[in-house]
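Collaborator request, handled under Task 6.
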Amino acid sequence: MQEIRFHGRGGQGTVVASIILAKAFFSAGYHVQSFPVFGVERRGAPVEAYLRLDTKKILVRCNVYTPDHVVVQDVKLLENVPVTGGLQAGGWILINAAVQPENLEIFSGFRLAWVDATAIAIQNQLGTRTHPIINTAIIGAFARIMEIPPMEMICDAIKEDIHTKPEQNIQASQVAYDSVRIVGLVD
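Structure tokens returned to the collaborator:
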């Protein structure tokens, strides 16, 4: 079983990202669970969402405490949220950032990748300049670093769930898939 923890802010589409990714994995033949954890429910507040996937039935019914991978939808969360807490050694950390994050020592022992999902969302007119909706871009980048699920499944899940600007969301996902930057294992 693989467990993924998403860190984001209210209004970025963090929960929707985990759901779309779960549907894409389900279409690819995986058993999945996807669920959010909310603190203060308001735009900009930190949000977590979880995704489990396995080739067999998932019987676990609790939060994800030791994820295999982490997705960070706002680079500023690195300043005050322990995003690597419990992360398994060698796990991926995917960050929405315009440039490679600084202070690489906090990522020691993990694989790091980043993508400018904010710019991609703005280019595709997803949300507004001040509140871009980056979820479809981030799942495209995630699919690239994991090499699963296939982009075809991501696109199908977006078409099924996103009724506003579905083509722009698919485009954002594909651009992020093609432009994600991979550091690999950080020593």
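The cover message to the collaborator said: "Residues 14 and 130 are 17 Å apart (CA to CA). Helices lie at 14-27, 117-123, 135-146, 151-161, 166-179. Please let us know whether this matches your experimental observations."
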